[in-house]
Amino acid sequence: MVTPVIWANAAGSFCLGFLAEDLSLFQHPDQNMRPTTSTSSTSPNEKEAQTTADYHKWKKSLPLYIGLAIGFCGSLTSFSSFERDVFLALSNDLPSPISHPYSPPRPSTTDTLSRNGGYSLEALLAIILLTLTLSLGALLAGGHLALFLHAHHLLPPLPTTFFRKIVNRAIVPIAWIAWLGAIFLAIWPPDRPNGPSSRGTWANETWRGDAIFACVFAPLGCLLRFWISMKLNPIMPSFPLGTFAVNVFGTAVLGMCFDLQHVRFPSAAGAGAVGGGRVGCQVLQGVMDGFCGALTTVSTFVLELKGLRRGHAYVYGVGSVGVGFGVLVVVMGSVRWSVGWEAVACVTGRS
Predict the structure, then answer these.
(1) Which of 94, 147, 151, 267 is most buried, judging by how many CB atoms fall within 10 Å of its CB?
(2) Does residue 157 fall inside a structural domain?
């Protein structure tokens, strides 16, 4: 069983847990609004609890916090890739783990091993349980670390004035320049023929499929997730509708791109190329890794699970994973179990 995004999901959840519980990094300008709670056996009094709640509410309005929590952590984790691996486990299409002690010849990471349906079901459940429990555990660990550092005064606050007057104003032009740079690299990749990192012909060019196209599409997914969450999450406090919508929609888009990347497009000259050829395959990979990866989120998903009442959390968790998986059974399963998939026409991170 191989699920490449499990550690990215855990890392993003850990960082979000730290940011969500942190009481030190972002210093409130009002001295009376700065939390003074510490680790002790006694519960905080009503005034301390209210101060902490007001601090968290204020912190979530800061551009830096929004960028780190929603932008970085949300984009580092990927609900759609997690659901893809759940379906691939069911259909016996997960890559073989290269660390397994196989007898020669050793399989590549794209090989799959034949197994009966019972083992496929076990692999499916293993990916779901491992991803959710590891991500939720990382979220809690990050939060505990933040509270420990605050209680022992080990984490100095960020320079509030510097970020408000300089970083907040500079980040927009920096973001535009970085995004335009990614577009230019997609047009003229460094490993193109005669490029500074050329490896021969266009057939050896891999940068666009591995990273560059993902950098082009990722900001679109991140901004769409932020906008939809802001609009829909407040509608139903017991069921974060915005996060649910982007996770399911992003999973559906990833499933369609995966199908297109693995089927042959007809052409007037004949059968055509798989996935539209090398460039088409790379664009689809960029949409999956960049747009869908940034649009969907596991870190926010597990943070919301932690914050909901137990009954609501089970409904939200089972509903999100179940609906996303059902979408992929329809989108990917209808192709996988009819015309079948072919080998991709470009080198990707899963090749």
Answers:
(1) 94
(2) yes
The two structure tokens encoding residue 304: 């919301």
What pLDDT sits at residue 49?
A: 74
Give the number of domains in the chain.
1
Domain span including residue 89: 6-26+62-98+108-336
Neighbours of 334 (CB within 10 A): 12
Q: Report how far residue 176's alpha carbon sits from residue 172's, in angstroms, rounded to the nearest whole number.
A: 6
**CB neighbour list of residue 108: distance below 8 Å, 6 or more residues apart:** 96, 98
Please report where in the chains the tokens 């137990």 appear, as a residue: 310
Q: Is the pLDDT of residue 351 over 60?
A: no
> Could you tell me if residue 54 is inside a domain?
no
Neighbours of 341 (CB within 10 A): 16
Cis geometry, peptide bond prior to residue 105 (ω within 30 degrees of 0): yes
Whole-angstrom CA distances from 347 to 62, 187, 205, 277, 333 are 40, 18, 8, 11, 23
Residue 341 lies in a domain: no
In this predicted model, what pLDDT tens digit does every residue of 38-75 receive, in sequence order?
Answer: 444 455 567 777 778 888 888 888 999 999 999 999 99
Q: Which residue has the tokens 């050829």?
A: 277
Give Cα 138 to chain centroid, integer Å. 15
Q: Which two tokens stand for residue 296?
A: 């969907």
3-class secondary-structure state, position 267 = strand
- Side chain identity at residue 106, one-letter code: R
State the burial class of residue 171 (Cβ atoms within 10 Å of its Cβ: 0-12, 13-18, 19+): middle
The DSSP output letter for 270 is B
